[in-house]
Structure prediction request, 360 residues.
Amino acid sequence: MHERSLVRGLLRQVDQIAAEHDEADVAEVTVEVGPLSGVEVDLVKIAFEEQCGVVDLAKDPEGEGSLARSTTASTRLEVLEVPLIVRCTQCHAESDLSDFVFRCVSCGSGEVQVISGDEFRLISLTLAEGANHAR
Amino acid sequence: MPAETIAIDRDIQAEKRAAAEGLRRQFTERGTFVVNLVSSPGSGKTSLLEATCRRWRDRWNVAVLVGDLATDRDAERLRPYVAVEQLTTGGACHLELSLVEKGLAKLPQVPRDFLFIENIGNLVCPASHDLAEHLRVVCISTTEGDDKPGKYPKMFRTSEVMVITKTDLLPHVPFDVANVTEDARLIREDMQVIETSAINDIGIDAWCDLLEQRRDAMLAEASES
Prediction:
């Protein structure tokens, strides 16, 4: 399970962004997860709950010496699940793959490129009303 | 202050990917071809490396970084042939770039021609971590199910070469080379497939040839740009 370390990286980025916005507290974090991201949605949620406002990034081997301070136990995680979409390099059609058979739905070619569904992305942050952690 | 939503839309691993890209460029400039070997535990990655390193002992300068949760048993097996450093993760299920960088710093010399990174035995998490390799190779042994590629699509999608190991056991196991090849090619149509038996030194020629060709291609591309 590598979701814990990925969430640590996510929280570090959330902290940096919050710091650029008057050290605001973060009410909600929205991420996007694709079927080929290598990330399990349930495990991301568990890791997020575990680490929000708790994890000490200073003890993280890759940490930059700051505490995850912009999130609190009440920070929500919104996970958007996106489909796996490939584009055919032969006929340029886009296929929405429901399984992991990498074939163009239109012409059957296997020469397809993934255009969506292989990433774990930070989409947006919602800052808490009136709250900040500059203390 | 009213609630405010800030649009970001960024790959959470973007920094790590960029760091891996930077390290890969350094390897390319030095002429070091880097292979990330992934598989289930016990599929024979270390045996394949032993056979490879034995063969190349007087031909290429080879270094190996070998990952495990604990012990340096794999490093001890390879030490007679090459410069090797064991990376112990203490429980983590995959190697990350930072561990590879630490291992590189501990190697007695800078790798010159080839660097092998033997990943943790796991077909899930290592698929998501770029270790600055030029080539990702997935090993699958004949004692595993030949339907494995479809069950671990990301690993097989991100690997360019599939090495079938322990082919000496084929007469004794219900493993069909044609089935596994077909299954892998549904995920990656251009998957290169090599059949090997490390203990009988079968297929090691083809495997070594493939690596030499890939390194030559990397050098040719680097000299063009």
In short: Residues 3-83+116-130 of chain A form a domain with the hypothetical protein PF0899 fold fold (CATH 3.30.2320.50). The mean pLDDT of chain A is 87.
